[in-house]
Amino acid sequence: MKSVSETEGESVTLQTDTETHGDELIVWRFGDEGKLIAKHDLEAKSLRLYNDPDERFRDRLKMDDRTGSLTITNTRTTDSGVYKVKISSSKQTLHKRFTVTVSECCCGFTEALIRLALSALVGVATVGVLVHDIRSSSLQQKKSVQK
Question: Which intervals hold domain Immunoglobulin (predicted)?
């Protein structure tokens, strides 16, 4: 089983590491229940991408004709789980499993803005302390020279 990790909003490709020859039937399933999400019959030249009743993968699945690899675009945390592919041909049947983990984006726009503002404040405070320190030491030098 291969493990794949990605951040929310990115694309993830589940690589089959195989090349198709034209007579394969490729079936992708998701989750412990094994819900059918994609089916490609190369011989019949038919590709079907399935939507759950909740339309979890609506317009976000793509399958590579040459390899059968599945790409999930604009990933969400709800896309995390087990994916299974079965590639059947007249010569052999290949089974692969993938564990996909989609983690939340580290920060949203508001959080990034707050971090930027705090960083700027720390920078300004640092400059203020340095200016004060330089003026203080300059003043002390003047006093010691006058004595």
Answer: 1-103
For the chain, which residues make up each domain, given as ranges? Answer: 2-103, 107-146
* CA-based nearest residue to 26, from 52, 60, 61: 61
Contact between 8 and 76 (Cβ < 8 Å): yes
Provide the whole-model pTM. Answer: 0.69
Q: Can you give 83-115 as a three-state secondary structure string?
A: EEEEEECCCCEEEEEEEEEEECCCCCHHHHHHH
- Taking the C-alpha atoms of residue 108 and residue 49, their distance in angstroms, rounded to an integer, is 31
Single out the residue of 69, 71, 72, 37 nearest to residue 52, CA to CA. Answer: 37
Is-contact 16 67, C-beta < 8 A?
yes
Please name the fold of domain 2-103.
Immunoglobulin-like (2.60.40)
pLDDT tens per residue across span 86-137 = 999 988 999 999 999 999 876 667 777 788 888 888 888 888 888 888 888 8
**7: CB partners within 8 A, 6+ apart:** 75, 102, 103, 104, 105, 106
Phi, psi of 77, deg, nearest 5: -60, -30
